[in-house]
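Render this sequence as a predicted structure.
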Amino acid sequence: MDIHTKLMRRYKQVPEWWFTCILLVNIAATIFTCQYFKDQLQLPWWGVLLACALAIFFTLPVGVITAMANQTPALNVITEFIIGYIYPGYPVANILFKVYGFISMKQGIIFLLDFKLGHYMKIPPRAMFMAQVVGAIVVALVHLRTAWWLMDTIPDICDRELLPAGSPIFGDLGHYSAINWFFLVGAIAPFIVWLANKAFPVREWIRLITMPVLLGATVQMPPATAINYTSWIIAGFCRDSLLTDTIEVGGVAITTYYQVHSMPGWPSWRSSCTCVWE
């Protein structure tokens, strides 16, 4: 047991049934709200359960990637595609499915990150739990009020009768229909790395390539000049390549110098200095 866990055992832990109760109450409240405001929210009860199932299923693998690579793959596009294919023509339902399927998983991982930080800072777990719960309630109320204000004040917002035919974004007639091919690229890319590792086992750097991290990291790339990536590549190359080579060459030179000057018959720097001083 590490020292952090040993010190944290002094505090009362958060019982598992607290998390279970919050999960069940929120799912029940979400289903009730979607059914009660069926005309406004447009999402049926089975959509809520499907979104929750996706969030629960992907929390573990996405959490592992986040813990290992500090990159969190996003499920926003996948959730939008799923509900858009199953339940087309309902824009508000699409947004809600994305919130329950992706944002809930993302917030859960952020919740774990905060708990990890509090673990190292020796903050009582129950205090962290209450801070997270109160913050989530405040944010949810503010977002809900903002959403209702937008729907009441903006004319024809999310009006299904005014939607253009043929899905003008990612559909067959859309502006970005070719992007759909990248789903196939993302599915094949890890197998290419695996085959390359089998074909060239001597190249150890190949097995270090993680395609979900490489492809997922491009989400942070802005739709303009990607100065954040170019500067990162240059700084990383200079640090990991040039700086490492400089240190190695310098180390070899210093080692060689002292090895040569420590040979028998070679006057040491101490004796030389002593002669000059005398």
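Summary. Confidence is low (pLDDT under 50) at residues 268-278. The CA atoms of residues 242 and 248 lie 10 Å apart.
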